[in-house]
Amino acid sequence: MTDVPAEPDPKPPARSRWSGSGAHLLIAALCALLGFAVVLQVQRTAAGDTLAAARPDDLVQILDELQRREDDLNSEIAGLQESLGRLQRSGESSEEALAEARRQSAVLGILTGTVPATGPGVSITIADPDGRVPPEVLLDAIQELRNAGAEAFQVGPVRIGVDSAFTGSGGAVVLDGQALTAPYTITAVGDPPTLAAALAIPGGVLDTVRRAGGTMEVTQSDSVSVNALRQPREPLYARPAP
Amino acid sequence: MYAVIALIVGVAVGLLVHPTVPEWLAPYLPIAVVAALDAVFGGLRAKLDNIFDAKVFVVSFVANVLVAGFIVFLGDQLGVGTQLSTAVVVVLGIRIFGNAAAIRRHIFKA
Questions:
Q1: Nearest by CB to B60, which of A4, A36, A43?
Q2: Which pTM does this prediction carry?
Q3: For range B63-76, the mean pLDDT
Q4: What are the tens digits of pLDDT across the range A60-93?
């Protein structure tokens, strides 16, 4: 790589041989070649086609980097999909559990009398002009209705629950500590004809009421509502077994 | 002056014709361009110093390009192509700057 300024003045004969128009042409050709190459390279760089000309080493490095990045992104995708699936599963299962709990709470609420109930049923009015209908008759009526498939009852303003009790005596019936006054009205949700038939069987509730000097009237209805509510009672001793 | 005209002609031809660079030449073209630029700047400086010699210019031009290309080729074979390319560009760049400084002193006297 000897450079121009390093060479002061070579031999004159050689110089004369190199100073003709041929040398000028040669220099011009080289300069034109340089300009051509510069433009070529600039265009190639501007076209962004650098990968095509990159060295194998660089290509390998670029490829490695891309593959590493792809691996990273793939594992990220897998993680995110897993957590998405987990969230969806837990969402579904908790939704199901909630619906099941609601269903159960509705069933238990009707059974224990903590929620109002409505549906087809009968309403019964027992008149007791002589004040001789004993609490046993009302209890018989409730038990007869329950045997016949009634699902929710109320007597007067009191909802019948699992621990309801008739006390008192004829004409002064007390239900769960609340005094009832005649005429007694019983509302029961169930299949109306079955309930009515159960009350009217010979020797059943109807006969007993008549014997006590009262009258009983049964009205079947497509829709009766049992509105009275009981307070749920916290069990003192019993705990759910695990 | 004819050299400058030839340079412009070369640029114009390059712009008008859109040639594709052959694959084997692609890695060497940028290095060759820088080497040729070094030779041209050296020639320009010699011209201003009044010691320009056509033979020296042509030989240094061709030799610069060939040696630079050979170094890059060798680097590619040895697996250090990128680093050697950088080294060649740095060295040639320093020489171009030196020549440019000399040219600047001639033209601006500073």
A1: A4
A2: 0.45
A3: 89
A4: 888 999 999 999 999 999 999 999 999 988 888 8
In terms of Cα–Cα distance, which of A114, A112, A111, A175 is closest to A139? Answer: A175
Q: Which of residues 85-104 of B touch A (CB under 8 A)?
A: 95, 102
Beta strand extents in chain A (DSSP E only): 117-127, 152-155, 158-159, 166-169, 172-175, 178-179, 184-189, 215-226
pLDDT in tens, B27-52: 788 888 899 889 888 888 888 888 88
Query: What CA–CA distance (Å, rounded) separates B66 from B28?
Result: 10
CATH (residue range A117-226): 3.30.70.1880
Please report residues of B whose CB lies closer than 8 A to that of A1: 60, 63-64, 67
Strand order in the sheet with A152-155: A158-159, A152-155, A184-189, A117-127, A215-226
User: Is residue A7 within 8 Å of B56, Cβ to Cβ?
Assistant: yes
Give the start-to-end residue ranges of the domains of chain A.
13-53, 54-112, 117-226
Structure tokens at A164: 């309801």
Respond yes or no on whether ipTM tops 0.90: no
For A46-53, the CB contacts below 8 A with 24+ separation are A52/B23, A52/B26, A53/B21, A53/B23, A53/B26, A53/B27
Describe the crossing of helices A21-46 and B2-16 by its angle, rounded to 10 degrees.
40
Strand A172-175 relative to strand A178-179, pairing = antiparallel
Which of B58, B62, B66, B88 to probe by mutation at the A interface, max A CB count within 10 Å?
Answer: B58
The arrangement of strands across the sheet holding A166-169 comes to A166-169, A172-175, A178-179
Cβ(B27)–Cβ(A56) under 8 Å?
no
Considering only CB atoms, which chain A residues are within 8 Å of B36? 30, 33-34, 37
Is residue A58 predicted with pLDDT exceeding 90?
no
Query: By CA distance, what is B95's nearest residue in A?
Result: A3
Residue ranges of the domains in chain B? Answer: 23-108
- Closest residue in B to A54 (Cα–Cα): B27
Burial of residue A163 (CB within 10 Å: 0-12, 13-18, 19+) is exposed
